[in-house]
Each structure stands twice: as C-alpha cells, then as structure tokens.
Amino acid sequence: MNVGRASRRSLAKLISAFAGARVVTAAGESVLDLPGQAIYYANHSSHLDFLTIWAALPAELQQRARPVAAQDYWGAGVRKAFAEQIFNAYLVERHGSSSRRQRTSDSGVSPKGQVEGMAEVLAAGDSLIIFPEGTRGDGDTIAAFHGGLYKLARLHPEVPVVPVTLANLGRILPKGEVIPVPHLSTVIFGEPLHLDPDEDRQTFLARAREVLVESLAKHQGPQSTDTPGQDDGVPDSHSQARQDDL
Amino acid sequence: MSGWELGLLDASSLKLLGGVVVVLVLATVIAWLLGRRLGTTGTIVNLKQRINAWWLMVALIGAVLAAGETVTIVLFLLLSLLALREFITISPTGRGDHKVLVWLVFIIPAVHYWFLWEHWYGMFSVFIPVYAFLFLPARNALAGQTTGFLQRTAAIQWALMVCVYALSYAPALLQLPVAMEAGRDAAEGSAPGTGGATGAQLLLFLLIVVQGSDVLQYVWGKTLGKHPIAPSVSPNKTWEGFIGGVLSATALGAALWWVTPFTPLMAALLAFISCVMGFAGGLVMSAIKRDRGIKDFGSTIPGHGGIMDRLDSLCFAAPVFFHAVRFFYT
After folding, report:
1. CA distance B58 to B9
2. CA distances in angstroms from B253 to B16, B80, B175, B259, B273, listed in the order given
3. How far is Cα A198 from Cα A191, in angstroms, rounded to an integer?
4. Which chain B residues are within 8 Å of A182, Cβ to Cβ?
5. Which of A81, A97, B238, B329 lies 20 to 30 Å (CA to CA) from residue A201?
6. Backbone angles phi, psi at B301, to 5 degrees
C-alpha cells in the first residue's frame, strides 16, 4: 500500500515534470484550495490530459479522483491495466456504441447508463475527472459540451463542479501523433461552479464552457499560425459536427 | 600552481570557484541584513531566491567539471533541451510542425553534442548551420502546412541556433586547449578530457565574466540607472548599467588573466567582447519576450525565471569568445 502510494506520487511528479506543468488557480496562486470531492471537467486535446490533471492534484485528493476514460480506447489489454490499476479510471462507453463506424453522427446524447454509472462513483464519495467535449480537439478551440456534466451536476448538486483548463498540452501530444514533444504546459484550477436549481442544460453547459474558453485564451501560448481559417478561436457551438478520434 | 587535480579542476580553477563562493557568502549575508532592516519585501524575497539559485548553479558547474568533460557535455545537452522546451513553447508552432519538433528536440541536439564530445570540430561547427538548417524546413514543407510557414520555420531555426548551437560553444571551450597546444589538426578527433584543466579555466573565465557582467549591470542599473537604452524593449537596461557593468566586468576579466593563457590586455579585450555580446543576448531575448507578451521564459530557476532567462547572455557570448580564442591562439 505504502509502496504503491509512494510510486504513484513519483509517477505523478514524473508526469508533471515531463509536461512542464505549472499548476495555478484562476487568480494565479500556486497554492490550491480544492474541495474534498469534486467533478473536475477540462478541455481535451491530448492523451496526456487526464494524466496531467491526475498528477496535478494534491496526494489526498488524487487517491479519490477517478478519471473517466473511453472504453473503446482504454478498455482492453495493457491500456486497460494501466488505466484501471494505476489511475483508478472509470471506463465508459461513448456515444451509445463501442463501434466506431456507427458513430457518424454526434448528437451529444450519452448512452443509457453512462451517467448513472458516473453518478454512482460520486455517491461513493469519489471525485470524477471528465472531458465534456467527448473527444480530443485541436488544442486551440473548445467544442460544444455533451450533456453528461449537466446531468451529473443535477443528480449531485452538493458536489462542486471545478473547471480545469489545460494549456499547451495539445502541443505536447496532438491528436494523431505518437511521440510527445516537451513544451511548458499550464494547469489552471478555476473557481468551483454550482448549478442553479432552475438553470437549464444549455445555459449551464455554455457557462461551464465559457470559463474554459476565457482561461485558455489567457494562458495558452501564442496561437499557432498553421491552422488555416482560424479566427477568434471559438467554435460555432452546438451545431458543429465534429470528427472523432483518429 | 600545485599538482592538485580533480577531473578538469586544478588549483587555479579551485581558486576561481573559491572566489565565487566568497562573493556568494557576502551576497547571502548582505541579503540577510537587508531583509532584517527592510522587512521581507518582494524584492528581498526575489534577491534571496536568486542568491540561493546561484549557490546551486555554482555547485552544479563545480561538480560537473570535477566529474570530467563527458559529464559537463551531458549537463549542457540537458540545459539545451530545457531551453529548447521554453523556446518552442513561446514559438508560433502548431500541430503541423509536430514531426519537425520531434527531430528538433530528440535527434538533432543529441547528434550535435555527440560531434562535440568527439572533438570533431569540422562537423560540430557545420552540422546545425548547414545540415539541420536545410533539413528542417524541407521536412516541414513535406508536412504540407503552408500558413505561416516562414515564421514557423524561422522560429524553429532560431530556437536551434540559440538553445543548442550557440549554447554548446560553452562546453566546446573544454577542447580548445588541445588546438592551442598541439595545433588544429591534432585537436580534430582528440579524446574527450584532453583539454584538461586549461579547458575548465577557459569555461570558468567566460562564465564568471559573462554572468558577473549580468549581475554588475543589474547592480549599476539599479543604483545609478537613468537613461534607458531601448525603452520599448526593456526599461531595466540603462546606459549607466550597461557602461558600468561592462567596464567593471572587463576589469574583472583582466584581473583574472593569471588563470588564462592570455596576457592581461588580451584577457581584458576578450572579457570586453564577451560582455558586449552578453548584453546583446539579453537585449535580443527581452525583445522576443516582449513580442510574445511574457515576462520570463519559464519558472525553472527560482528568482531568475526560466533556463533561457539565465543563459541568454552566455548564448551570445560563448560562440564569439570561442572563435576569438581559436583565431588568436591556435
């Protein structure tokens, strides 16, 4: 147990060092004041994302934080062992099907049982790390959010929803690349959000997303100049059709 | 000089390091006294952090020189990689550059430092400016992203130039004595470590003069500085700081002539050139930081900022110092 714990801490340090991760609050403080239990949600552009958030958490919170990972990628073989044994990941099926080909349309509707399962994790007292975009983006823009974040907040209004902005991680290991290239990244823990009792799904998800958009614009390094047609970095929300992971 | 030796360190180098330690002890005491009189203000905290970091950096350079040329080269390779990481973070590169960045970070610096370690001057001096500089844009053109191509390519080459090529001239000084004593032909391919104690003295001379110049410019600038040299780039760089710092660091270099193969006049001249180059390096890096809207390159060294914030002057001074010595003494 102690050996496992010590080696997890060493692994966390190693991940943070490789990602050059500077961990700050939204106000720029380096000392985190995080709630004991939370739903952490973050922008998603890299396979390193959940590792980095996990590594950035203080030891006592890290033990009870469960990253939500996709069954179709992390659900078998070495990856499964890696995700479940070391990071205590909670594996979910995405988009109602484990078959990639059937997922041509992206309705933003989570498969039945997915949210219930995550709610059970919260009911057991653990925290969740989720990526409401549902898939990795280009690192500069943040796609529309899926509804799971809202449903979890509705089912467990007592659990604070903590925004986590990941800046520059998509440059370390962009989608479709195999070898990570070191950059300095920043992990920004924002002020916890609470769902208003009469707040509807659209409003809450837009509000939650806007926190990340603003924080990313502030902390991401220079915008890359290699993306043709890139304008203000904010995608057309909700109507946008997205490609899934390569 | 007695026969004491440890790795590349001999009695003279030890005296140099001892002198630095004395200065650091004084600085530590002064900072402590200032802290007691003025209270723990932000400036005092930063000053103490800076001095503590100096202790670590001096200990590190002493340790690697004692361990020999190979270990020293490995240290500078690591510094190059850390500097490169800071540099590409602020560069306008994106996903389309990823494959080129893999070459830039994982392959080219290692090959370059390998040539350096082999004392293969012919290859060490042209590998990056010829082969890498022509290869990288070609590889990037193959990747197919043309938007901002010139800016991205230029940023990648400049990162390589400053963080790897220029910085590696500092450990290259370790092999220069072979060419100074046995001629350029004999130096080509000589064994690592053959530069001996003289190499370590050259490196320490450069480090002390250039970093000393940085500190002295800071001190002169803080006390007497009034007229900024380039206010749009850095309000902290003043004519008073520049002239005072460069002249006093030149005097420091001249005073250290006994540890070098140079005459006092030549030591002063080389120190002067190095200080002016070091100033230029700091100015250029300030302009880059100003352009990218950042204050520091990173936060690796507490109180100083990133690796590049500390090494900016050395990157500009080392290549010129190396080639000046090579031109006049081999």
Report:
1. 14
2. 12, 26, 21, 10, 11
3. 21
4. 81, 84-85, 105
5. A97
6. -105, 110
pLDDT single digits (tens) A99-147 = 444 443 344 455 667 888 899 999 999 999 999 998 888 888 899 999 9
The partner residues of B5 in beta bridges, in order of sequence, read B10
ipTM of the complex: 0.84
Is B298 a residue whose pLDDT tops 90? Answer: no
pLDDT band at B321, cuts 50/70/90? very high
Give CA–CA dist B139/A46, Å, rounded: 24
Do residue B93 and residue A224 have CB atoms under 8 angstroms apart? yes
* N residues, chain B: 330
> Of B167, B235, B209, which is closest to residue B20 (Cα–Cα)?
B209
Cβ(B224)–Cβ(B240) below 8 Å: yes
CA gap B249, B274 in Å, rounded: 10
Query: Does residue A243 sit at the B interface (CB-CB below 8 Å)?
Result: no
- Which residue of chain B is at minimal alpha-carbon distance from A23? B299
Beta-carbon separation of B95 and A179 below 8 A: no
Count each helix (H run) and each strand (E run) in chain B, helices first: 15, 2
Residue of A nearest to B103 (CA): A181
Contacts of A227 in chain B (CB under 8 A): 94-96, 147
Q: Which among A140, A168, A181 has CB closest to B102? A: A181
Residue contact B92–A223, C-beta within 8 A: yes
Backbone dihedral angles phi then psi of residue B4, each to the nearest 5 degrees: -65, 130
CA distance A171 to chain B (A): 6
A225/chain B closest Cα distance in angstroms: 5
Distance CA A72, CA B112 (A): 42
pTM of the complete model: 0.88
pLDDT value of position A95: 61
In a mutagenesis test of the B interface, which of A181, A230, A231 is the best target, namely the one with the most B β-carbons within 10 Å? A181
What is the number of other CB atoms lying within 10 angstroms of the CB of residue A104?
9
Do the beta carbons of residue B5 and residue B15 sit within 8 Å?
A: no
Percent over 70 (pLDDT), chain A: 81
